[in-house]
Each structure stands twice: as C-alpha cells, then as structure tokens.
Automatic annotation (TrEMBL):
Organism for this UniProt entry: Thermodesulfovibrio obliviosus
Classification via SUPFAM superfamilies: Adenine nucleotide alpha hydrolases-like, Carbon-nitrogen hydrolase
Transcription among keywords: no
Binding positions for deamido-NAD(+) per the UniProt entry: 403, 432, 540
Keywords, in A-Z order: ATP-binding, Ligase, NAD, Nucleotide-binding
A GO BP entry: NAD+ biosynthetic process
Catalysed reactions, as listed in the record: deamido-NAD(+) + L-glutamine + ATP + H2O = L-glutamate + AMP + diphosphate + NAD(+) + H(+)
Record pathway: Cofactor biosynthesis; NAD(+) biosynthesis; NAD(+) from deamido-NAD(+) (L-Gln route): step 1/1
Protein name as annotated: Glutamine-dependent NAD(+) synthetase
Chain's role: Catalyzes the ATP-dependent amidation of deamido-NAD to form NAD. Uses L-glutamine as a nitrogen source.
Entry's family note: Belongs to the NAD synthetase family. In the C-terminal section; belongs to the NAD synthetase family.
Length: 569
C-alpha cells in the first residue's frame, strides 16, 4: 500500500525577520518529524515573509535568504521539506526549494505572477517555465505556488499529465470576506477534475494592511476535504494520504486520460525510501464550520491589528472615544486583539458633546476594563476662535470651525502618542473615507486605520455580533453624529448609510459609473452627489494611514485613482 504522511506548517511569519522565520521553520520541522511526517511543507516566501516588496531589490536581502536556506538544508535528513523563498539565478524568481537528504533536490519557480489588487509580483520576479514532477519511492508529486493553482491549465494539468498524484501548492493568499468560500470551491474542483490530491498551504497573520487567514486544505482526488487548518491561527496539519486512491479514482473516472503533455517530461527522483509509520490516521477537519461574514471580518480585524502592533514593537495603543459606534467598535477590536491593559481611551469633550455621549463613553470603558484619559478641548477651541477672530471677521461659522475641533483632538492624540510611545489607531470607516466625511489632520490623524475597509452598515452588523453586551445598547440606536455643532447628525450631509453604502459598493467594488448605478433604481441627484464626493476626496485618501483589507477593493493599494482627474463617469 502506497501511503504518505504530509505535514502542512501554517505559520505566522515576519517580513524581513529572516533569522526569526528560520528559527520558526526549524522548530516546526522538529514538530513534524516527531509526528513521522515524510513531506513537510512551508508557505510561499516563508523564509523572507510575504510580501517583502522593495526589499527584494537589495542583494544583501536575497543573500540572507539563501544563507537561511542553506541552514535548513543542513537540518533536513531522511525526509522532504518544501519551503518558499526568493531565488536569484539569471533573474529573480518566487521559488519553492525541494530539500531532502541534506541536499537541495530542485527549485521550482512560480509561473503565474499576480499583478492585481495588493499584488505587484511582476515588479520583482521573472516567471518560471519548468514544470517538473518529483518521484519519492514510487509516489509522484508536484509543487506549484499560489496563483499557479488558480489557473485551470498550466501548470497543474501538465503536472498531472506527467504522472503527479499529489499537487502541493504553497501560498500567501490574502483574506477578504467571502474569498475563502470561492477559493475552496476552486480547489475542490481542481482536485476532482484532475483526480489528484490537492494540498493547499496558506500562511496566517497580518502584514501591514493585509491579513492571511490560514485555513489550509487537504483535498482528496474525489474533491472531498480531508483536513483543514485553523482560521487566523497557526497550525500544524498532519494527514495520511492513500496514494492508491488516485489510481482507483482515475480508473473509475479517466478525465485526464487524453490530456497531452507538451514538452519534455521532467521527473526528478528523490533518493529516499518511504518509512514505516504508526497506524494512526491523523487527518482531521478542525475549523471546518462555515464562518459568518461578521465573524470573518472581526477575526481579520483583530489579527491585523495584533500583528501590526506586535510586529512593529508597540506596547500600547490609544484612540479617541466619542461615544459613537465607530470608536466603540475599534476599542472592542483593540481589547480583543491586545488585551485591556494595552488599550487607552482618550475622551475629548467639547461644548457640543452630549450628556448621552459622555455616559456611553464611560459605560464602554467600564465594560471593556480599559484606562481612560479625559481632556476637554473647549479652552483650546476658544483660543483658536479668538486668534482667528480678526481674520474671520464678519464671516459666519461653517465647516472651518468644525474641522478646528477635530484637529485639536488629533493634536492631543498625537501628543499622547509622542509622550508615551503609544500607537494612535484611527476610527474612521470606509463609508466616511470614501466620500471624504473626515478631517485631514483631525480624526484621520494616526498610525493605523483599523476599520478603514469596513462600511458603516457593516460596522453596525459586526459590532453587534462581537459586542456581547460590552458596547452600550444606546450606541447602536442613536443617530450617528460628529457632534461638532448643535444638533448635528451625519445624515445632514450624507444620504442614509443603507443607501450610501450600496452606491459606494457598486462604484468601488463593481466599477459602476453614474448612469449604471442610477439604473439600479437609485435617485439621480443622490448618486451624482455621492460620486462627486468620492472624486473630490481622493487627496484625503492619499494621506490616510494604512488600514486592514477585508474587502475585494480596499481604499489603499486596490484603489489607484489620479487626484487630478476630469473624467465624469
């Protein structure tokens, strides 16, 4: 009987921390060896972390990754390790090293280089052209990298036509809500259509604005999920594969019998014998339950914030608390991500702050168990008004005075940050940032925008799911307001958020112009106003802090519009 024990090491890596990544890789090799794993797999660019971006232009960085690879090779004996790293030959490649017997058996180069959304791999890498298959004591397996498996032909189909019974795909696939379900359908279809085991390994953790959700998969030749990695957590997934199942499946359903392999058939023999193993079958389906959108988004936000704070060495975070839903939700995320002792709320009331907002801030702080600093902005605001009284003589108060209040608050938060070394996290949502309903150098001031990619209506839904009574009930029910003038509510300036968010979704995620959106049964004047606001706010978005991507089109690397732009749409 041909069986194979596989270990998928779903780990959280740090870009540029090659020494730390190496240490983690070696520790997981040790764990997998104790489980009698024969093939031990690590994610795409595991040695350097994903994505190194312009670090890849530095020869010293590439050399350091090569040195780490050599260290791994020394520690690989009578088993196989597959690990991702950048490799410099005639050019630079996104590669997978195949290691056994303290030797580098081969290096596979990624063929399909994504150059959309947050990806920019064609800036750095040359695509590979070889499509080898590896023989391990009568078991034939192939390796490809992330985007390679997303294509229905090359390289997977040729690998299978060249005898591969197992495809190992190492990946760094960023999260957005709903992507996992689409990806799972694609991977199970690949396995079923080709009658092959598909072992998909995704990394986990946050890197700047992107989050990797893990949820690695081992899929049988009949398209059934055999094992699944944990969501948003490190994991070691061990599974025993009955390779004869491939033969049985293909004899029953010979879907690839007539596939023609073009080019030379490259089979690389690995000089190892398969080992006798314990009889325990270790495959499992932990975390196989379907997450709701609310749970997915909340876990992504907490993972992204936790890793950004920890990987960049911040001890604590601070944020402005207003008594509204956005700041309450961000405070809740921060506590979940970091613990209550590492989160500081700053309440900065003014003459326009309502009694209810004050009560809601203090109730939230009590429920979350976090420290609160209160600094009134009234005296500072009055000083601004006095200092500008001659300049603004005979002119009515307008958005200028509103923005002064917001910028005073931004200054206070940054002063606290400078004094104590805390990271300021901002609380603006995607709806506000899209239309510019935010103050540059005011409520936009900070180092990390936690809910930058979450629409206002999503904020309410996810916050309700996550709250468990910690966010005061009134926060969910009162009309949202910036409280920068008497009686102000958001809907004085914006359409209802249910309408606004739908228009923004169609424009941002679906690339619809004005007339197309109007034809979806929206009011013409409302659509025109919203799209004009989006266009005018581009200069603000360029200066906003980075934030966590949870949608297909985040207002960061996914969104690249010229500020100077006369296209009407």
């Amino acid at each position: 009987m041909r069986t194979l024990r596989l270990a998928l090491c779903q780990i959280n890596l740090v870009v540029g921390d090659i020494e730390g990544n190496l240490e983690k890789i070696l520790s997981y090799i040790d764990k997998a060896v104790t489980k009698q794993a024969e093939i031990i797999v690590f994610p795409e660019l595991a040695i350097t972390g994903y994505n190194p971006e312009d670090l890849l232009f530095y020869p010293a960085f590439i050399k350091k990754a090569e040195e780490a690879l050599n260290e791994i090779i020394k520690n690989v004996k009578d088993f196989i390790v597959i690990a991702g790293l950048p490799v410099k030959k005639d050019d630079l490649y996104n590669s997978a090293a195949i290691i056994a017997n303290q030797s580098l058996i081969d290096v596979y180069h990624k063929i399909y280089l994504p150059n959309y959304s947050v990806f920019d791999e064609m800036r750095y890498f040359k695509p590979g052209s070889r499509i080898p298959v590896y023989e391990y004591d009568g078991v034939f397996f192939a390796v490809n990298i992330c985007e390679d498996i997303f294509h229905p032909s090359l390289p997977g189909l040729i690998q299978v036509a060249n005898s591969a019974e197992l495809i190992i795909n190492i990946s760094a696939s960023p999260f957005y809500a709903g992507k996992y379900q689409k990806k799972t359908r694609m991977l199970t279809t690949r396995a079923y259509d080709m009658g092959v085991y598909v072992c998909y390994l995704n990394m986990v953790g946050g890197q700047d604005e992107i989050v990797f959700d893990g949820r690695s998969l081992i899929i049988s030749p009949s398209g059934d999920i055999m094992a699944m990695g944990k969501a948003f957590e490190e994991d070691l997934i061990i599974a025993d594969l009955d390779i004869e199942e491939v033969t049985r499946t293909r004899l029953r359903e010979p879907k690839i019998r007539w596939e023609i392999c073009f080019g030379d058939r490259e089979i690389i023999k690995i000089p190892l014998k398969r080992k006798a193993k314990s009889k325990v079958v270790l495959s499992r389906k932990e975390s196989a339950y379907e997450m709701t959108e609310e749970e997915e988004i909340f876990k992504a936000l907490t993972t992204g914030l936790r890793d950004y704070v920890n990987k960049n060495g911040f001890k604590k975070v601070c944020l402005g608390l207003s008594g509204g839903i956005d700041s309450s939700f961000v405070a809740l995320i921060a506590v979940e991500a970091l613990g209550r002792d590492r989160v500081i709320g700053v309440f900065m009331p003014s003459r326009y702050t309502s009694k209810e907002s004050r009560q809601d801030v203090y109730e939230l702080v009590k429920n979350l168990g976090i420290e609160l600093i209160e600094v009134s902005i009234d005296e500072l605001f009055e000083e601004y008004l006095k200092s500008l009284s001659d300049t603004f003589k005979d002119l009515p108060q307008d958005v200028t005075e509103e923005n002064i209040q917001s910028r005073i608050r931004g200054n206070i938060l940054m002063a606290v940050s400078n004094k104590f070394g805390w990271l300021v996290i901002t609380t603006g949502n995607k709806s506000e940032l899209s239309v510019g309903y935010a103050t540059l150098y005011g409520d936009m001031a900070g180092g990390y925008a936690v809910i930058k990619d979450v629409y206002k209506t999503q904020v309410y839904r996810v916050a309700r799911w996550a709250s468990r009574g910690r966010i005061p009930e009134r926060v969910f029910k009162k009309p949202p307001s910036a409280e920068l003038k008497p009686g102000q509510i958001d809907q004085d300036t914006l359409p209802p958020y249910e309408v606004l968010d739908r228009i923004l979704y169609l424009h941002i995620e679906k690339c619809m112009g004005q007339q197309e959106i109007i034809e979806k049964d929206f009011d013409r004047d409302t659509v025109k106003k919203v799209l004009q606001m989006v266009k005018r706010a581009e200069f603000k978005r360029r200066q906003a802090p980075l934030g966590i991507k949870v949608s297909p089109v985040c207002l960061g690397k996914d969104w690249r519009f010229p500020i100077t732009n006369r296209f009407g749409g």
